[in-house]
Each structure stands twice: as structure tokens, then as C-alpha cells.
Amino acid sequence: MSFFSMICCRKGIDRKEKEKQQPTWRIFSLKELHSATNNFNYDNKLGEGGFGSVYWGQLWDGSQIAVKRLKVWSNKAEVQFSVEVEILARVRHKNLLSLRGYCAEGQERLIVYEYMPNLSLLSHLHGHHSAECLLDWTRRMNIAIGSAEGIVYLHHHSTPHIIHRDIKASNVLLDSDFQPQVADFGFAKFIPDGATHVTTRVKGTLGYLAPEYAMLGKASESCDVYSFGILLLELASGKKPLEKVSATSKRSIAEWALPLASEGKFSEMADPRLNVVELLKGESKQKLSELENNEVFKNPQFAVCNDETSGGIEESSEIIEEEKDPEPVKEKETEQKSPQDG
Ligand SMILES: Nc1ncnc2c1ncn2[C@@H]1O[C@H](COP(=O)(O)OP(=O)(O)OP(=O)(O)O)[C@@H](O)[C@H]1O
Ligand SMILES: [Mg+2]
Question: From start to end residue, where is composition biased (Acidic residues) (predicted)?
Fold first, then answer.
């Protein structure tokens, strides 16, 4: 090999190593984000959560972004911002929302993500997309499997292991093919190597909290698995995790589903927007009869928290958020021009 080709070869290796080491996210200036979102125009608003508002934007290269802008600066919000950025910068998986970067100038805190054209699962199940019935059974299965893969990656393949602590329909975003990406790592926790759980203040969303976590503050992977189970029931039934049954009380989706499941009334449980007759035949029928023989379905009272427990959850934590109805948002067209384009 000639000296020249050795140099070229070395250069190639250097470039490849550099590419590998280079983070895929960057720091944005506030000016750039102002320009991308048309000065955080109301028309660009995609939604709002506990942290602040989320805006659609377009960068100078034409790529679309979602920008989450902190509402009010506080120490708590600063922690949430840092946790989210630190975790998202570490993880890369097809079913976890990608971080494009962040901006921290003065008291402004902004997180820049990949834009998900089909917004959140919440908007399709209970929000302004729900009447369009875009989620057939195949899409719902893909959403369930993809979300599970994202969670498995956090629990088992990232170092240290991560628990999300806020798995819910508004935190499952859908790309242009309705493939799911789990989002929102502001409440996430690292599980140190060898530890079975961490004891912590309870955070999360009512309706999705595992009873042992809500009562004892013991956070482990199983908290996410419980929330994911609630999400599965929501996907299959189209019902909300907590439903108002009177002016003063709410019923959890598990309380609603278990008696029906134990009586084998699966067609009553299925979302009426789904045509499920075929699912109740053939292979699925065999699986359903296996489920019917499961202990949980035979004794539904064991599996559901009673009312005192739910009351305890609410009182024991000031940080738990209640799932809001999604506010109506305008869908952003892919061909929408950037503000600079006029
Ligand atoms: N990357 C994104 N692409 C498209 N839409 C997004 C994106 N991120 C968020 N959104 C939209 O913005 C809404 C608000 O998101 P946000 O995470 O702030 O609040 P939330 O999930 O509803 O509540 P919480 O604060 O409890 O997580 C989402 O429901 C979703 O519709
Ligand atoms: Mg969210």
C-alpha cells in the first residue's frame, strides 16, 4: 500500500470515528427557533402539556420540528428539562422520539424534537382525530408492539437502565406511517446497576399509576409495564383510563374491563370503531379461552384497586397530573412553508 493510500485510508477511518462520536443533536439559538416557529405563533401550536406549549416549526433546511417551550421557569422545571435532554441525548431507538436539540438562553428552556405528523395516540383515541377512525386493528397492533419495543429498549438495553414513569396515550406519538415513538422523558429515572427499584416521590398521570408505586413510591420497570397495560386496554377499547361515572367519582378502565373479561364479553370491550368480528374467530378464539382461564379473570376483585386506594394516590402526591382532554389543534401540512418563505 502506498504512503498516499495509507493517509487516505486513515482519513476515512478518522471521519467514520468522528461521525460515530458526533452527537446527532445540537444546541439551537433562540433566534433560530423564533424564526422556525413564526415567533411561536398561535397557528403553529400543536398542543400543551404540564411543561409548556409545543409548536410546529420548519428549519432553514426544510426539515420539520416540534418545539416544546417551558411555560414558567422554576427549579422543578429546570430539573425536568435537564432530565429530558440528558436521557434523550443518550438513547436512540426507532420507537423513541428523537431529540434534535435544545436551547437554554436566560430563563428560556426549549426542547427540539423530530416532528410527528400524526401527533399523539391520544388525539386519535379521544381527541380531534377520533372521529376519522384512522386506527384500524393492524395499526393498533403495530402501535402496541412498537411502543413495547421502545420500553424494552429503555428497561433492558440502555445503560444504566431507564424507567420512563409517564407512559400514556399523549406520550406515544405517531409518525407518517403511524409507527409509534415514545416521548417525554422529563420524569424518567435511571436504575443503578443491580438495583431492583428506586424509592422516589410519585410522579406520573392518574389512571396509569401502578398501585404499589402510587402507595409506596417504589419505582421499577414494572411501573411502566402497568401503565403500558392500561394503554393496551385503552387501545383495544377506545375508552379513557379514568371515566367520570358521577359528579364525584371516577371509574378506572381496569375496573370497567375486568368484570366484562371474566364473563367473556370481549365484543362489548372492543372499541365500537373497530370491526372485530374476525378477531373473535379462529386463532384469536383460542387465545381468548386461554385468557379466560387466567386467575386474574376468574377473580377480578384481586386485580383492581379499590376507591380508598385511588383516594390515597391523589392525596399522597402533589406532582401527579391528571390527563387532560386534548385541545383542538390544526394539523400541519408537510408542504407548509417556513415563515421565511412567506
Ligand atoms: N414531536 C412532536 N410532534 C408532533 N406533535 C407533538 C410532538 N410533541 C408533542 N406533540 C403534541 O403536543 C401535545 C402536548 O405535548 P406535551 O408532551 O407537552 O403534553 P402532554 O403529553 O399532553 O402532557 P404531559 O405534560 O403530561 O406530558 C401532544 O399531545 C402532541 O399532540
Ligand atoms: Mg407529553
Answer: 315-325
Q: Which CATH class name applies to 121-322?
A: mainly alpha
pLDDT digits (tens, 9 = 90+) for 86-114: 999 889 999 999 999 999 999 999 999 99
Probe residue for ligand 1, chosen from 120, 319, 336 as the CB with the greatest number of ligand atoms within 8 Å: 120
Determine the Cα–Cα distance for residues 310 and 110; give it in Å rounded to an integer.
34
Ligand 1, atom 24: closest residue by C-alpha: 49
At the topology level, CATH places domain 24-115 in Phosphorylase Kinase; domain 1 (3.30.200)
Q: Is 0.90 topped by the overall pTM?
A: no
CA-to-CA separations, 189 to 39, 83, 134, 178, in angstroms, rounded? 33, 8, 34, 28
**211, 217, 219, 225: CA torsion to nearest 10:** 10
Q: Which residues contact 142 (CB under 8 A, 6 or more apart)?
A: 178, 179, 180
Would you say the CATH fold of 121-322 matches that of 24-115?
A: no
The active-site residue, picked from 61, 136, 166, 193, is: 166
Question: Which residue, by CA, sits nearest to atom 20 of ligand 1?
Answer: 49
How many CB atoms are closer than 10 A to CB 93? 18
Q: What is the pLDDT of residues 279-292, one digit of tens each?
A: 555 666 677 677 77
Domain boundaries, the chain: 24-115, 121-322
C-beta 188 within 6 A of ligand 1: no
Active site residue 166: yes
C-alpha cell at 163: 424507567
Q: Which element (helix H / strand E) includes 114? A: strand 108-114
